[in-house]
Amino acid sequence: MKLNLIQLLIWEVIGIRYKLIFGLILLMFTLSFVHASDTNASDILETHNDTSVLEAPAIPSAPDKPDLVVNDTIYVEEYNIDEYFKDNVLGTEFNDKIFVFEGDFNNLAKLSIKASNVTIKGDGAVLKNTVFDVSGDNVTLANLKFDLDSDLSYNDGAAIIFDGDGLVFDNLDIDYVAELNREAYAFYGIGNAEHSRNLRITNSRINFEGHNNNRNVYNCAIKVINYDYAVMENNTIVTSLPLKDVNHGAHGTTLDSDFVLSVGVENCNYLKFINNTVISEVNFRQDSPHPTLDGLLISKCNNSLIENNNIMMSDFVTYPGLDNYLYGIDIYNLNNLTVRGNDISIITTGGRLSAGTAYPIQISGPISGVNITRNSLYSFSNGPNIGVYSQNYYGGTELSITYNRINVTGLAGTHEWALVAGVETQDSNSVVENNIIEVHSVGAVGADDNIYGVSYRQSTDGEHRYSIQNNTVFSDGFKSVYLLSSNDSTVSNNLLVSYNQNAKNGYDGFGYGNIANHNGVNFQNNQVIRAFDYYANIYNNNVNEENGRYTYTNPTNNRHVSNVIDGRSINPISNERRTYNPLIPGSSEHHGTYSEGELLPVSTNPQERSNSQNTGERSFNGNQNSNVPGSDSNANTNNVNGASSYARSNSTDATPSDTGLNSLAGEAVSSGGSSSVAKKAFEIEDINKNEFIPSIFYVIATLILLIIGYRRKNSNSN
Fold first, then answer.
1. Which residues, in sequence order, are bridge partners of residue 620?
2. Which helix (H) or strand (E) holds 86?
3. Contact, 259 vs 291, CB < 8 A?
4. Read out DSSP for 216-230?
5. How far apart, in whole angstroms, are the C-alpha atoms of residue 576 and residue 556?
6. Do 235 and 202 meet the contact criterion of CB atoms below 8 Å apart?
7. In 10 A of CB 697, how many CB atoms?
8. Where are the annotated segments for Disordered (predicted)?
9. What CA–CA distance (Å, rounded) separates 237 from 277?
10. In terms of Cα–Cα distance, which of 542, 436, 439 is closest to 498?
11. E strands within 522-656?
């Protein structure tokens, strides 16, 4: 009995030992596989970015969200906006607060601000069909993005409508596509002339698309009335608008006369419109008597400044032979305005003889103290065209046009409305001096056609006094200046450089019609010079430091150079006479290269070329290379337009890459990738195969020991 107990104890110890051995074997077996996998995985990771998964940096925790109210700054999201905009109205209990809008605000309609001294700033905020009505004073909206494409008639069609004092709209991004035949504005403000002042619209981007095609409703990106000391600065305003008729009143045009505008301002004294970019394009032409679009209309804004703006307009909807009426800056009924340093260009395919306009600047009286200076004006149309047009039909005009660069192209003719001019001054009193003007006609120019640098060609009532001096005009015509009539005027020292082959050098550059219509006119030294003589004179009078003055001389062939080629020593490839130049691709469908006397044809069928490029085979100029087992590996089989040809390629094309023999690296190389990835893939597969053999022996040995231990334990129990 005692012996049996001892035997059982021994066998139990042996069983525990076997279990330990078995556990060690399993541990070694597991580690062997883990080692192989880690080795392969780390190699792959090192191939790509030298960083293993175990070495990846820890993910930082998300920052805490700010409290809803911090030092009078209130953080607002869509879910809690009702706590502050009760029934969509921010009341006076929130005066002197700062709000930060975060996230998206969708379809909230109109948010009214009646509180004063309020700032609303966006922090990644996007307002989808959500707009503002600002009636409080000293309100600032900044850093907000608007995405609008629905009917906003509940806010008079405006993204932002306002009438408060001391308002600031800064760094706003407004994308507004108006519905068809709906009234629409990005900014719309009608202030109180005695109360509303100091409006600022700055650093904002407006993309405004209007479609009031068939109704007389207003579509304007910016429309502001009754705001003295307003500033509009550093904005980008892009508009796409239809052409609409203008509703002229009995006393002249006002802001409400135009149904489409990029920018319209009225009754805003001391306005500053500076450093803005205005881009306007036409998207629809109404079939009407005078389809019109303005870039900037300014009316009744005394003591104002328009400076350093870039205004571009285009109309490619109106075909040649149809009239359209485009104006870059349209000025009405004001005193003391400076228009300085602006770059204005208008390009249109529209216009016809005696009908249509594409005027960078238009001025209509009554006006006084207007100074148009140092601007760059460009315009092209197929109808009448003028760089600066000014008229006193509704009242007297007194202005100066100086130091501008004007380039105008249109269609000149003999009718008084078929006029192409740098300046048409139908003014009571004007100064036009020191401008550089270039005018051209899209048609041939005759001696009686109306094309001038400066003109008063279309008659208006009243007296006309002019000082037109020191202008340089480059023209297809014959006169630098033309005046129907004048009183106590001076026309002198104006130079015409004519490109017309019938122009004659002389001093008759001033055209005055019937001299009896001029009272006290003084004109002298208005020179005409042909363009060839003008440029020749410039170059002949330029001074060279080494050789003195430049002079034209006929070139001489001092070295007896000849362009005759002696080809007698050149041996032709063949005696074949070709009807095409084999050196010029495309001169024949049978161009290419010769190989062993055979011509390689090139397919002219785009479909065949695209098919050859998409087969995955090597192709060149439509030829396919098929390496077929058992065939000549260096042969190209070509099938072009149903005709097959056979040509031997060079050995380089047919030799596969060494890397591609044993792995996928060949594909990696051919696609521009590194061969190291494919090489690592091969190494992983090879390592897995080598590790598999010793692993089998571990498994077999473990099974044998388990069987022996089990049998001994059973026999001992028995």
1. 623
2. strand 85-86
3. no
4. ---EEEEEEES-BT-
5. 41
6. yes
7. 9
8. 549-675
9. 6
10. 439
11. 522-524, 528-530, 543-544, 548-549, 594-595, 598-599, 619-620, 623-624, 635-640, 643-648
